[in-house]
Amino acid sequence: MSRYRPPAKPMSAYITPEGEMALKDELHFLWKVERPQVTQQVSDAAALGDRSENAEYIYGKKRLREIDRRVRYLRKRLEVLKVVNQLPTDTSKVYFGAWVELYRDDGATVRYRLVGPDEIDPAKHYISIDSVLGKALLGKHLDDELSIETPSGEHRYEIVSVDYAGQDAG
Question: Which of 90, 114, 144, 161 could lock 101 by a disulfide, CB 3.0 to 4.6 Å apart?
Answer without folding.
Answer: 161
